[in-house]
Design brief:
2 copies of one chain form a homodimer.
Chain A: H1 8-13, E1 14-19, E2 23-28, E3 35-40, H2 53-74, E4 78-83, E5 93-98, H3 120-134
Antiparallel strand pairs in A: 1-2, 2-3, 3-5, 4-5
Amino acid sequence: MHSFTLDPRLEADTYDIGVLQLCRVLLMDDMRYPWVILVPQRAGSTEIIDLPKHDQHSLMAEISCASTALKILFSPDKLNVAALGNQVNQLHVHVLARFVSDTAWPNPVWGLDSRTPYPAHMAGSLIDKLAKALRPFGLKDN
Amino acid sequence: MHSFTLDPRLEADTYDIGVLQLCRVLLMDDMRYPWVILVPQRAGSTEIIDLPKHDQHSLMAEISCASTALKILFSPDKLNVAALGNQVNQLHVHVLARFVSDTAWPNPVWGLDSRTPYPAHMAGSLIDKLAKALRPFGLKDN
């Protein structure tokens, strides 16, 4: 049995927010959209259906937590939730706050290759806010 | 309390496959990808977090059923699962079989405006296959 390690590309493109019961919680380093990524800490999983049923339920619960945190913090026009993995094989779920005024609207955000990293001071305060919003849902430091 | 009716755009772009415990099950009329859409029969829902917890669990279970059916029937390289709703407000979840050789790979399929409808005989046999694969999961006629 292999132990879980975060995919290097996910690690390179994100900041660490913490860990819920099942998932690592990451902030995508892209200031165009408030964008959380949930990564179930189960080595070798690429599809939702690779997870046992109880992990699938935990995943849905944690999607709900991340969605609620983004909704409270950003009042988005729409949430986008997606498990794609066409580029990064390790199972991960995108949870995004979308706005009618964002650069990609109404299209999806993936496949547009112009990630805009946060200035360091902005990333820090956003990570703090998200961590604070997720702590009532059981978020712990990684 | 309003009763559930399917969004007219979803209705126009899809074929009916049947109904699971929570969701209407639709086949996207686009022969570029085997593409199922799940629509929770809950009037007024636009986000996953609009659903009560037990419906969220049913939704995950039905995503899992649709994914398994697509996997068995098409042996895709990757499944894509997404709740976007930037264009159609009614809560719906896309479950797609993706292939390294499909026209959009590795990009997502949304936002490319070139839906390719099935010839009628192909749609019919595909709907039959999907319905047969979903019947063990409780699919009924709508």
